[in-house]
Design brief:
With about 140 residues, the chain is α+β, with helices and mostly antiparallel strands. It contains 4 helices and 6 strands, in the order ααββααββββ. The protein has a 6-stranded mixed beta sheet, covered by helices on one side. Keywords: Signal.
């Protein structure tokens, strides 16, 4: 019993370090999204999403399935940098739900000359093939 307790106590600091590294990587992913959006580069913005037909994006018009369909919707809704504006995220909550999966809640704001937009989002982000990718996005 003491040996088991010793192992748990020994592993605890490494678990914390792993969680901190994961949180930092996810914040970097969201920063890449912000930077790509603000450069008007939707292809780079979409590189943070899981390139799969199983990606799900839920917006005001309901769910969209698949990476390509999500990119197509973005391109239709934001055809140029005027429509895109400048993106800012506020992360409200980040929770690890498994060693390779995080749940993120935040607020988004688009500053635009044609009128600002804002709302909230929830993301499910998973590490696949060594990279963190958004696998589900609910933005409203």
């Amino acid at each position: 019993m003491r040996f088991l307790l010793f192992l748990i106590l020994l592993a605890a600091p490494f678990t914390g370090v792993h969680a901190q590294r994961s949180a930092s990587a996810i914040k970097a992913l969201l920063q890449k999204q912000t930077d790509s959006w603000n450069e008007g580069n939707l292809d780079s913005f979409m590189s943070t999403y899981w390139q799969s037909d199983s990606l799900i994006f839920i917006g005001k018009r309901g769910p969209t399935y698949g990476w390509q369909a999500t990119l197509d919707n973005y391109k239709r809704s934001y055809p140029d940098t005027t429509a895109m504006g400048k993106l800012h995220f506020d992360i409200l909550e980040m929770k690890s739900v498994a060693s390779d999966t995080w749940f993120v809640v935040g607020k988004w704001h688009l500053a635009r000359s044609i009128g600002d937009l804002e709302g909230h989002f929830s993301l499910l982000i998973r590490k696949t093939k060594g990279q963190w990718k958004i696998i589900a996005d609910h933005s409203s």
